Amino acid sequence: MSTTSPIHADLIKRKNPYAVARHTSPYPADILAGLWLISLGIYFIFVGRRFSRTLATISGYALVGGLVLFIEYNAQAPRIPETALQVGYVVSGIAIGAIGGVAGFYFNEFGHLITGVLGGFALGTWVLAFRDRGLIQSETGRIVFLIVCMACSALCVCHFDVPGTVAFASIFGAYALMIGIDCFARTGYVSSATSFFLFPGSSFRVTSETFAMQGGVVAAVVVGCVVQTILLRRQTRKAMHMDEQMLKRKLRIRP
């Protein structure tokens, strides 16, 4: 049962449209967003850089979908009773994100830069979530910090290529997975993303539950880096083996 009355929940939502009333049942929009984020997280963690073009496509898709939600919620943030509007926002974000997916598909390198940007945002919000209202108390400072994180992570992907992409794909995937889980678990961890980026420091509170989610992010990042590295090594060995076989065949055919 919910321990938060509908009136109190609505007051929370009016003060900050992105705030999550803890220990309430998930709304339809939360379920859609949660499933979407969990799916993204699983792909970024367990597949990631193995399929380069697919990663670029999904990165572009995730970025544009997130930007659409950002614009919609800032234009007219729905209150808790407005379930249809919330669902419409999430569905439109998921649908319009396809535009970014197409761009990522045709511009592979640009798609990898987006992977770095997403990973930088996830890393920045993860760092900020170690303190109530953010590790950096200044609202301007928090936004600048997130922008710097995104820029630096994009540069890392450019410079280190495969290792950088693996690392930041894992970071974003781990963070998206935990945020998606929290859409159902309702610990308040989802506010670590929405509050710092949209309404800086207005609702996030550090608790033992959010610390557990922070630890879950670290564990998922480690798993993602290990899994992707193993898969990439196997892929490289397989490619080398196929090249050797082709070379042997050519030598046999040669008179």
TrEMBL record:
One of its GO terms (cellular component) is membrane. The keyword Glycosyltransferase does not apply. It is a multi-pass membrane protein. InterPro entries: TM7S3/TM198-like_dom (IPR025256). It is found in: Membrane. Keywords: Membrane, Transmembrane, Transmembrane helix. Pfam families: TM7S3_TM198. Residues 35-228 form the TM7S3/TM198-like domain. The chain crosses the membrane at residues 31-48, 55-75, 87-106, 113-131, 143-162, 174-199, 211-232. The keyword Ligase does not apply. This is TM7S3/TM198-like domain-containing protein.
